[in-house]
Write a structure and sequence with these properties.
Elements lengths: L2 H11 L11 H10 L1 H20 L7 H10 L8 H33 L4 H19 L5
Helix pairs in contact: 1-3, 2-3
Length: 141
C-alpha cells in the first residue's frame, strides 16, 4: 500500500482502521508496521476529524420559529376534480389532433407538388451514394 492509498482510506473511513473495508486491513496493517510514525500521524488527523463530526449536532429550532415558518408557507392548491382533468385531457387531445392533421396535409401537399415513384427515389439515392464514394476515394472534387 502506498502513502496516498493509506491517506485516502483514512480520509474516507476515519482514524479507526477497524472501520475500514476488510479487504484493506492486511495491507494497511503492513503499511502501519513499516511506517509507524507516518501512519500514526495520518490516523490521528483522521481521528480528530471523526471527533469533530461526532460532536456536531443540528441547531434546535424554537417552537415559535417553527410556527412562523408554517404560517408563512403558501396555501395548498385547490383540487380541480374530474372537470379539470377532462378539460386538460380535451386540450391535449385537441393538440394531438391538430398535429396529426398537419402531418396529413403536409404529406398530401408533398405528393401533389412533386410526385416521386419508389424507383426514382432508389435511383437518386444510389446516384448520391456513388458521388459520395468518389469523394471519399479522392475521385473528383
Amino acid at each position: 500500500m502506498t502513502r496516498d492509498g493509506f491517506e485516502a482510506l483514512a480520509e474516507a473511513y476515519g482514524g479507526d482502521m477497524a472501520r475500514w473495508p476488510q479487504d484493506h486491513w492486511d495491507e494497511a496493517a503492513l503499511f502501519a508496521a513499516q511506517q509507524p510514525d507516518l501512519a500514526a500521524s495520518v490516523l490521528a488527523a483522521a481521528a480528530r476529524l471523526d471527533e469533530a463530526l461526532d460532536a456536531w449536532r443540528p441547531l434546535a429550532v424554537s417552537h415559535g420559529l417553527r410556527e412562523a415558518v408554517v404560517a408563512a408557507a403558501p396555501a395548498p392548491r385547490a383540487q380541480r376534480g374530474l372537470t379539470g382533468w377532462i378539460w386538460r385531457a380535451g386540450a391535449g387531445a385537441g393538440l394531438a389532433a391538430a398535429c396529426a392533421a398537419g402531418l396529413v396535409v403536409g404529406v398530401m401537399l408533398s405528393e401533389a407538388v412533386a410526385p416521386v415513384s419508389a424507383d426514382e427515389t432508389v435511383s437518386a439515392s444510389l446516384a448520391n451514394y456513388d458521388d459520395l464514394t468518389g469523394l471519399v476515394n479522392g475521385e473528383g472534387a
